[in-house]
Write a structure and sequence with these properties.
By secondary structure, the protein is of the alpha/beta class. It contains 19 helices and 30 strands. The longest helix has 20 residues.
Length: 716
């Protein structure tokens, strides 16, 4: 009699098929085998899964079961740890197992048929053999043999001694990357099979890091030892990296959040760089936090986990309190910057209350920028808003450039004279006159990076920089301003090209969004300015101050990294609230003080990390329908079997419109669910899933487009 197999396939999101499907096979295939199975008229990739304990195979009519189509037995099994990671992620983030499992595999495994895949595997087997190792004695102990700093030595000693998880709390420029390199190297030398996973938040940062790892480890472990995983790679590259990791030949996997699901049979170390970065949170499908899964995975597989940041997330910071206060993470501290200009930049606050109304650059800031231009140094100005101006306005009739499809204004982009909605993409040419009253005098309100660049060019028009080449400009050259934001870097390679121009000194002043504040090592920049950071101080999002503080600290960390440039670098902040505690802490570069203040507020308000949250979002053509679904599902929570024990630990808030209420003509509502206990929240969400599914089928679910649960949401 043929065997019955449990197989996970990627089923449609809300098909209610949360678990594996049953198929027939002539031979008993072990869990973790990759197979191809028929589903309807299609043939899909599937993963043989562990048989559920509570389902008796005999309840299914064998006559109705279909046999599997193929077995991909050239690929090793997905091991129990990987399957457990997927199982946990699906259950914790309230998604179907099949969806999570299949999304965690490279797209080509799904898309190629068996013949194509077999060919690919053959080719891979020929090229991916591990290279010859160099004798360990040739390996430098630090960068090019440079000795570790005492702080690095101390951090590594602690890391070796304890099991973790570790939070490496190191200032920007304190040499965290060197600590990562060193710990990875130690591990790979000591354990000939061991693998390490190193995660970074942005695709943009992977080439830099990959180059550094390759230079360092290529000669020791061979070029196939380092692979990357991120969404910017071609499907073929992704398959190649995945196979390398899965076979164990790749010793080091570098990647963005998706890499947390990489199949690595001998995973012994996970590093999460810039662990506070919001991009570790997946914002669609299974909304997982790669950082949190990394910690889980480390415990599951006995791999050490090191989270690193100069401005840790308040959650991680909270976990790294002394053990006696209940902290679970080991904090490793590296407060000092390395190098001759080790001092952190001087933070200067400009009180905009004392500046002429509507001034964009305070006079002292402008002077400071001009002074640097004169010295041949660079400045960086950032503003978190792209485009020319966030809204066009008619002063006569009060018309504003609203998006007809979203609850947002369309942004004025002067360069191509368009009004563009940044939410749904709706784009039109700028009207010649006010569409309502015909007034030809419609004017931009507010300012984005494009306008800031234009304004700065006007202000600096008369300024000359020292001659770099011959004497084409007898009285000095005009100032060179560049802008980097999502608009100027849309095409592949443009960001790299623009960054290269900054690095080579072809730019005097760089204007941009937060894109330029993160990660990049701008060695010749000695002044960083945030022209209008105040919004975040009074945002309805309780995480806004945390994000602002870390952004400003990161930005400040960009300044003054070049050993050749003497003198103090500066971080300027223009604000109407110079005495705000956030800026006070920034001035002292005092993350711990900032964190203490924030955590105290969060504790008093019972906010995360002192409580646990989930959001249910609903989308429909009308706000009423979206809210009615949430309200009905909330009311039905009392029908849960354990309602009496459970509900006292759970707060279900009323359904409200999302802060971006309408996008592309779809109304969006959300409901917050909160509990002081993570376990209670998890238990509730799991039980409540079926209520949500049922409610969808009832009159209250009529007209609903979709709903989704977001566990540990980052934006409320
Ligand atoms: P972080 O990641 O903490 O911002 P990096 O790892 O980029 O810091 O290090 C900052 C700078 O210090 C880099 O230029 C790096 O090459 C240098 N550096 C790191 N460790 C050492 C060391 N032990 N001796 C000398 N220079 C070092
Ligand atoms: Zn008008
Ligand atoms: Zn829109």
């Amino acid at each position: 009699m043929p065997h019955q197999l449990q197989v996970l396939v990627h089923t449609p999101v809300h098909s209610q098929v949360a678990g594996p499907l049953t198929y027939l096979s002539d031979i008993a295939l072990p869990a973790g085998t990759l197979v191809r199975v028929p589903l309807g008229k299609r043939e899909l990739l599937g993963v043989v899964w562990d048989a559920p304990i509570n389902v008796a195979a005999s309840t299914l009519d064998p006559a109705k079961l279909r046999p599997i189509a193929d077995t991909l037995d050239a690929i090793a099994l997905l091991n129990p740890a990987w399957r457990q990671l997927v199982t946990f992620a699906a259950s914790y983030y309230q998604r179907a197992l099949g969806e999570v499992a299949l999304a965690a595999l490279p797209p080509q495994l799904r898309d190629l048929n068996t013949q194509q895949l077999t060919r690919r595997l053959k080719k891979h087997a020929q090229t991916a053999a591990p290279d010859q190792l160099n004798p360990a004695s040739e390996i430098p102990s630090g960068i090019d043999g440079v000795a570790l700093t005492p702080e690095q030595t101390q951090a590594i000693a602690q890391f070796d001694l304890k099991t973790g998880p570790f939070l490496l709390f190191g200032a920007t420029g304190s040499g965290k990357t060197e600590v990562y390199l060193h710990t990875v190297q130690q591990l790979l030398l000591n354990q000939p099979d061991a693998q390490a996973l190193v995660m970074v938040p942005e695709i943009n940062l992977t080439p830099q890091l990959e180059a550094r790892f390759r230079t360092r480890f290529g000669p020791i472990f061979g070029d196939n030892a380092v692979v990357s995983m991120h969404s910017g790679m071609t499907p073929a590259q992704r398959l190649k990296s995945w196979l390398g990791a899965h076979s164990g030949a790749a010793r080091i996997v570098l990647g963005t959040r998706m890499a947390v699901f990489a199949s690595m049979p001998n995973l012994k170390l996970i590093i999460v760089d810039e662990e506070h970065d919001p991009s570790y949170k997946q914002q669609e499908g299974a909304r997982y936090s790669a950082r949190d899964l990394a910690v889980y995975r480390g415990r599951l597989e006995g791999a050490k986990v090191m989270l690193g940041s100069a401005t840790p997330s308040l959650e991680s910071w909270h976990h790294s309190r002394p053990a006696i206060e209940g902290g679970r993470y080991v904090r490793l501290e590296m407060p000092s910057r390395i190098g001759p200009n080790a001092a952190l930049p001087l933070v200067r606050r400009v009180d905009m209350n004392h500046q002429p109304k509507k001034s964009v650059f305070a006079a002292p800031l402008l002077d400071a920028i001009i002074e640097r231009i004169g010295r041949g140094e660079q400045s960086m100005v950032f503003l978190n808003r792209r485009g020319y101006s966030p809204v066009l306005h008619c002063a006569d009739c009060d018309w504003k450039s609203e998006c007809p499809h979203c609850s947002a204004f369309r942004v004025f982009h002067k360069i191509d004279r368009t009004l563009r909605c940044h939410h749904c993409g709706f784009t039109e040419r700028v009207p010649r006159a006010c569409p309502t009253c015909g007034n030809p005098d419609i004017a931009p309100l507010g300012r984005g990076t494009e306008r800031l660049e234009e304004h700065l060019a006007e202000l600096l028009a008369g300024v000359r920089r020292p001659n770099s080449v011959c004497d084409q400009w007898p009285e000095g050259e005009p100032v060179r301003i560049a802008r980097i934001d999502a608009d100027t870097t849309k095409l592949k390679g443009e960001l790299e090209a623009q960054l290269a121009r900054v690095h080579s000194g072809e730019v005097d002043v760089l204007v941009g969004t937060q894109m330029i504040a993160k990660g990049h090592d701008f060695r010749r920049i000695t002044l960083v300015a945030a022209v209008n950071p105040d919004n975040a101080l009074f945002s309805s999002d309780f995480r806004a101050p945390e994000r602002l503080f870390s952004l400003l600290m990161q930005a400040a960390g960009r300044a003054g990294r070049d050993a050749d440039i003497s003198g103090q670098s500066e971080m300027w902040v223009q604000t109407f609230h110079p005495a705000h505690p956030l800026f006070e802490a920034l001035k002292r570069h005092d993350y711990p003080a900032f964190a203490a203040g924030q955590l105290q507020e969060r504790e008093q308000a019972a906010m995360p990390p002192f409580s646990f949250q989930a959001l249910v979002r609903a989308e429909a053509r009308t706000q009423e329908v979206a809210q009615a679904f949430l309200t009905a599902a909330s009311a039905a929570a009392v029908t849960l079997e354990d309602a009496e024990q459970l509900l006292p630990h759970i707060t279900l808030y009323p359904a409200v419109p999302m802060s971006m209420q309408r996008v592309a003509n779809v109304e969006r509502a959300q409901m917050l669910i909160e509990s002081p206990s993570r376990a209670a929240l998890q238990y509730f969400l799991t039980a409540w899933q079926s209520v949500l599914h049922t409610t969808r089928q009832q009159p209250e679910g009529k007209g609903l487009i979709r709903w989704a649960v977001d566990v540990d949401p980052l934006a409320i």
